[in-house]
Design goal:
two-stranded antiparallel ribbon, 6 helices, homodimer, WH-like_DNA-bd_sf (chains A, B), Arc Repressor Mutant, subunit A, globular, 6 strands, DNA-binding, 38% helix, alpha+beta, transcription regulation (chains A, B), DNA binding (chains A, B)
Chain lengths: 153, 153
DNA sequence: GGAAAAGGTTGCATTAAGAAACCAAATCAA
DNA sequence: TTGATTTGGTTTCTTAATGCAACCTTTTCC
């Protein structure tokens, strides 16, 4: 019984989860955003088993989220760096962080601030084209013909 | 060897992933945002095994993301509805959707539009207090003493 | 040159996931 | 009212994933 694939589910969210939806991937990405580049530093920073880390890093590389760069003089010192695609997950990571802080309190040792001002960030929100904040009740899911689907709260 | 717990990792992202970080939870939540409330409808809509759906729903209920409401006359007709905490994951779901669409193309049968205007939504972004858009390079991770940590891209 | 570090791989035990069968209560059709 | 079907599960079995520890090779440090 191989694990269910999500990329043929006709859903972009499922497709995203297929790439970064397991327990560790987003934490590896968050660690990379924090500055970590070396295998051992990921291992120590996350407390992840080496074989799992191997698997996650190579999967992230395969999916174009990270790259493996050879930085050794003679061959076997590597760095794992975020690609543009990986860095673009910043929104997701921050949204998850803020959600957790709103509902579970701040469990984090560290804080995220604007580099130039030192001030905390604004809350990540969903907006319409005019910049108005939208909740799930303010949107419609429409099919390819523009027909709206039922929606709930 | 029980799966690693993330809620004692000193990280809000890890704490969030501990609640909704497995393969199915966010899809169940997205399905609920789409209007699904009944057990069978989740099952048909997602193609998930019943025992896994049972487990995920009850875990989401335990974590306060959904509630189980008895809607039957005599006892065993249930609806699973999002709580405020669950609805608040809208930002995360939309951010994931949009990321996937930006990098993998739109794999989705349906589209998300502003209910009042019918227009597509704006891209979810991270902003500072002044409303300026920030990337991961524009932020600093600081510890509890305000000391900045190294950061990369 | 010897020791340690980096980046893995392998083997084993435990847990989770998926499919299918089964089941009891409630509802629906006749 | 009876019988079938739906709903919301639970159980069993097989396969896959996770975690830990040991090991291994190349490279760097002293």
């Amino acid at each position: 019984m191989t694990r269910k694939r999500f990329d043929d589910l006709g859903c972009s969210v499922a497709c995203a989860l297929n790439e970064v939806g397991d327990w560790w991937s987003l934490l590896v990405i968050k660690q990379a955003m924090l500055g970590t580049r070396r295998f051992v530093d990921f291992q120590n920073g996350l407390g992840i088993a080496k074989n799992i880390l191997c698997d996650r890093l190579s999967r992230l590389v395969d999916n174009g989220v990270m790259t493996r760069v050879n930085v050794g003089e003679h061959g076997t010192r590597y760095e794992y760096r975020l690609t543009d695609k990986g860095r673009d997950l910043f929104t997701v990571v921050v949204a998850l962080r803020q959600w957790s802080e709103r509902w579970n309190g701040n469990k984090d040792d560290m804080q995220l601030v604007d580099r130039s001002s030192g001030e905390p960030l604004a809350q990540v929100v969903v907006q319409n084209a005019d910049g108005e904040v939208l909740t799930v009740r303010d949107v419609l899911f429409v099919d390819e013909n523009g027909q709206p689907l039922e929606q709930a709260g």
